[in-house]
Amino acid sequence: MEYGKRPILRKVIAALAVFAIISAIPSSFADEIIKTLTGDSTDSVAVQDESAPGDPSIEQPDAAPEASPTPTEPTNQDSITVQSSKETVTASASPSPTPPHALANQSMRIISPTEINVDPRARSVYLPRINVAASGNLLICASSNLGSFDANVSNTPTGDGKSELNIFGAATPNFRISGVGNQAAEIINSGNGLRVFAPNKALAGTFIQLKFVALSEASSNPKLCNDAIASNTRTIFFRGLGMDLNIIKGGVTLK
User: Fold this and answer.
1) Which residues are CB-contacts of 191 (< 8 A; sequence separation ≥ 6)?
2) 149 within some domain
3) Are 34 and 128 contained in the same domain?
4) pTM of the prediction?
5) Which of 214, 244, 221, 237 is nearest to 109 (CA)?
6) 166 in a domain, yes or no?
7) Contact assessment for residue 207 and residue 113, using Cβ atoms and an 8 Å cutoff
8) Can you tell me the distance from the alpha carbon of 228 to that of 134, in angstroms, rounded to the nearest whole number?
9) Do 125 and 13 have their domain in common?
10) 201-239 per-position pLDDT tens digit
11) Which residues fall in a compositionally biased region of kind Polar residues (predicted)?
């Protein structure tokens, strides 16, 4: 009987010893153990919370982008303004003026001699009157194979501006005169008429050529002389009179 009670007594004594040991542990050490256990659980929860946003299975709402002005907007506005101003200037610019040119209608009436009898020794000849009836502004181009022309007027510089009277080539073998309407014809017919002269040789046996062109504006451009049609071109020959410079005069008896 006594032998059966001993194991029970031993267990009771062992339990009391364990309780006594636990009671003897300081409270501060127990608190540290509790904090350690609590901290580990908190860290594990934090780790789980931090890893949660990276989970691809959970869709996260996109944050609304903030509207911010871009630095290129002022540049775009400036370029648009410059382009608009260029378009405005282009639209308001006037078209380039049309240069003087030959009219499509070159119909005109010209009355002039084809031959002029001159002294075989003459070095200067005045042309008879030349009648011209034409529309537009008349250009007369005169050329000679020997002599030069004198219309009793000096050259008129045209420059870049427009002029009502253009004269070029005075006292040269190539003479051009152009004016408003038939002004050119009136000038060459004024006074004794257009003079042809040669300083070193007689004019007999030579010729001159006159071209008449109707223009949109007065101009002495030599290229416009090429627009003269055949019916508006006149060639005048200087034919020497039948005079023999070696005529022997007979004696005359006076009574």
Assistant:
1) 152
2) yes
3) no
4) 0.58
5) 214
6) yes
7) no
8) 13
9) no
10) 999 999 999 999 999 999 999 999 999 999 999 999 999
11) 76-87
Range of the domain at 116: 108-240
Intra-chain end-to-end CA distance of the chain, in Å: 226
Tell me the H-state helices in 93-189. 183-189
Q: Say if 32 falls within a structural domain.
A: yes
- Are 116 and 128 in contact by the 8 Å Cβ rule? The answer is yes
**Least-confidence region, from 46-60, 193-207, 208-222:** 46-60
State the residue for tokens 């250009």: 139
The reported pLDDT for the residue numbered 253 is 74
What is the DSSP pairing of strand 115-118 with strand 233-240? Answer: parallel
CA distance 134 to 100: 17
For residue 143, the SS3 value is strand
Number of domains forming the structure of the chain? 2
**Main-chain dihedrals φ then ψ at residue 42, nearest 5 degrees:** -70, -40
Residue of 131, 166, 169, 164 lying closest to 150 (CA atoms): 169
Report how far residue 196's alpha carbon sits from residue 208's, in angstroms, rounded to the nearest whole number. Answer: 9
Cα(229)–Cα(206) distance, rounded to whole angstroms?
Answer: 23
Instruction: For residues 6 and 127, state if they share a domain.
Output: no
Per-residue pLDDT tens digits for 151-188: 888 776 554 445 688 999 999 999 999 999 999 999 99
